Amino acid sequence: MNRPELQAMGERERERQQSYRCRLLCCASTPCLSSGATAVIEALKQFVKEQELDADVLVTATGCMGPCSRGPLVTVQTRDLEDVVYEHVTPELARDIALAHAAPEPRALERNLLAADSPFFAKQKKVVLSNSGLIDPERLECYVARGGYGALANALREMTPVEVCEAITRSGLRGRGGAGYPTGLKWDLVRKAPGTRKFVIANGDEGDPGAYMDRTLMESDPHRVLEGMAIAGYAVGAEQGYIYVRGEYPIAAKRLENAIRMAERRGLLGGRVLDSSFSFRIDIRIGAGAFVCGEETALMASVMGRRGQPSPRPPYPAQSGLWGMPTLINNVETFGNIAPIIDNGAEWYAAIGTDKSKGTKIFALAGTVATTGLIEVPMGISLREIIFDIGGGIPNGRAFKAAQTGGPSGGCIPAEHLDTPVDYDSLRRLGSIMGSGGLVVMDDTSCMPDVAKFFMEFCMDESCGKCVPCRVGTVQLHRLLEHITNGSATPRDMETLEELCVMMQETSLCGLGQSAPNPLLSTLRYFREEYQAHILERTCPAGKCTMDHVPPLEQGAELQRRSRSTTSDSEVS
Amino acid sequence: MSVVTLHINDELVSARSDQKLLEVIREQGIDIPTLCHLEGVSDLGGCRLCLVEVQGSSKLLAACVTPVQEGMSVYTHSERLVRYRRMILELLLSERTHTCAVCVTNGHCELQYEAAELGVDHVRYEYLAPQLHLDASHARFTLDHNRCILCQRCVRVCDEVEGAHTLDIMGRGANGRVITGLNRPWGECVSCTSCGKCVQVCPTGALFFKGSSVGEMEKRHAFLSWILNGRERKEWQW
Prior knowledge:
The complex is a heterodimer of chains A (573) and B (238). Chain A has helices at residues 3-18, 30-34, 37-50, 91-102, 119-122, 140-145, 150-158, 161-171, 183-192, 213-220, 222-236, 250-265, 296-303, 332-336, 338-344, 346-350, 383-390, 424-429, 448-462, 468-485, 491-507, 511-515, 518-526, 528-537, 557-572, and strands spanning 22-27, 57-62, 74-78, 84-86, 113-114, 199-204, 240-245, 281-286, 327-331, 360-367, 373-378, 400-405, 411-414, 438-443. Chain A is built from 25 helices and 14 strands. Chain A has 4 domains: 3-121, Glutaredoxin, CATH 3.40.30; 147-349, NADH-ubiquinone oxidoreductase 51kDa subunit (Rossmann fold, 3-Layer(aba) Sandwich); 360-446, Ubiquitin-like (UB roll) (Roll), CATH 3.10.20.600; 449-572, Up-down Bundle (de novo design (two linked rop proteins)), CATH 1.20.1440.230. In chain A, the strands form 3 sheets. A 5-stranded mixed β-sheet of chain A has the order 2-1-3-4-5, covered by helices on one side. Chain A has a 5-stranded mixed β-sheet with strand order 11-10-14-12-13. In chain A, α7 packs across α15, α19 runs antiparallel to α23 and α23 (518-526) crosses α24 (528-537). Chain A has 573 residues and is an alpha/beta fold. Chain B has helices at residues 21-27, 79-95, 110-117, 153-162, 197-201, 223-233, and strands at 3-8, 11-16, 51-54, 61-62, 73-75, 134-135, 141-144, 167-170, 177-180, 207-209. In chain B, a hairpin with a 2-residue loop joins β1 (3-8) and β2 (11-16). The longest helix of chain B has 17 residues, at 79-95. The model of chain B has no long low-confidence stretch (mean pLDDT 94). Chains A and B meet through α19, α20, α21 and α25 of A and α2 of B.
């Protein structure tokens, strides 16, 4: 396939879509599927078949539309009406929707409507998710109809690899995996690195609790990721790419596999891409459930079939990665940003966001907030806007307490910093990180030491065990937090705790261990009085921890506690 | 091979450019503790005892895996480093059951030695003391998980020197275990050549010869360089 053929394919698909009077789009991403979208799609298709409306009504299973807690979601595009979105759609409601919209005089139902001008949609800016919820992720034509693979064709014909790297550098795009390393700089490093073969890896091993940005992108718009990787391959001189998909994401892996096959069949991937001299193959690697495999050196070990354990850097992957060859490794979301940058220009992209953090960021809004779901916002938006405007605030009349960003490597941001702009550097100054984009909102019923314990338990379970500070440190910190939350800690335990946190940050081998104490340290920074209440007064201000079963800490009681905890240990093991 | 110059504890020293920091530091007669490092096998960078401060780097670097660089300035024994080394040893001692008084390597144990050197006279952390089993199914050797520090020396020597790769690590984090074969009893592992290299390189009493009693298990530390010198340089010292 060449460029004119690609354009013709897009044109054909657009005409086909416009020939329908009404298009019923139902979200088929994991959250909606788990709340019953399969039955809804089935009901819609059944309806069209019964009424013999095949020529007028098109039912499409699409990707994510955003407000996941309100699923299953159905968007209806009718020729003469505004697009409308229905929430909590049941198969019965689906038939009513189809009946109302497919009628000769189409009208929208009054029930279950999500207002299109609600702040949830109005405050967002969709760049990476611009196709999500509008296209069928299983059809290549749908992506091409929205300009897909145009950026790749453009790059291959009009730009040199150096120019592509320069464009990415000028756009100011930074890695979306969490650390925020400038993407253009990384590409340039790999491009310049000497090596007979080079590799491109997309990191889709997303593991932060509550985060599902990468999954949604891979499920809703898989071709966008492939296109970004192909452009990267062209820019750095790689002919082989790997997508590392988390084992818990079977739908994403299936759709990516399907997308790769379709793109290869049409000559958009594989040998001689778009009739150019550039060849690029992409293979999928599926993880086996280790969080640490999201760390780049561990991920590469896993791709090579070895035990997923990090190794010390340097050498960095850009110098010596997969099988010792220069390797470019970026997050899936980073690759999702590439095509729009090439399409619209680096300056257009650099105009979005703040001075040091450009573009948009996808967040998975979770926790105690009225509407949870997936949102894409320009960098620099305040946390208050995200939580109270887009998310609709805290339900049940409770008060906001903290927002956790960055998962187990991040931290908690208290109410007094709600107006901080969300970008890489501001969040770091607050003791948290941007991370991959998990955003968990907590109301005043959350106990901060308990939250810290949750994340420490996660890190303890996910520590690979290669280095001592992380392997044993996480266990000891978890023990100490357990003592604090059950009322048996002493003021001295606090000293041990803080010292251990700093030691782990400075001595651990990889990012997982170095950042594991972050949730604990950030809650200590903003909610120290809660820790003190647990230890000195043996009360939990949030009313979460129960401390009745532990006797007061008087002389001798401490010894009793120690002996009791050792006996219970041996029972467990 | 080019030569680089660097500062170690403010002393100017020179080194071959392919050397690792640890080697250069030890050549200067500076004593720096290690547990996972073993001359003759690849480096892991896991025990974190050989961490050093390198000027200009915000992170502490493990000397065993850090290549030397021209003009680098390294500090090996700052107050912070010594404190961290002590804490690492305390963590190791708290992790499993290290009761020296009943251990076969009492008096010859590297963990015990390093703890004594660094003055670790008590452990502030709770002893986790998991009750792990002991594999005595092999005719000559015993593997006691309770004394294992997961340094992976045995895994590396079995893979890289003997070439059998009978030993490996299973599980992750604190649940990590050295396993034999595909987690079969050691005695049933057909890949094991019973060469005993794993026993000789084990820094603690986790691997020992059957029949040794308290303090009787002394490991031969020189044998690995003896084998490798012979194999690679044809220098046999018998």
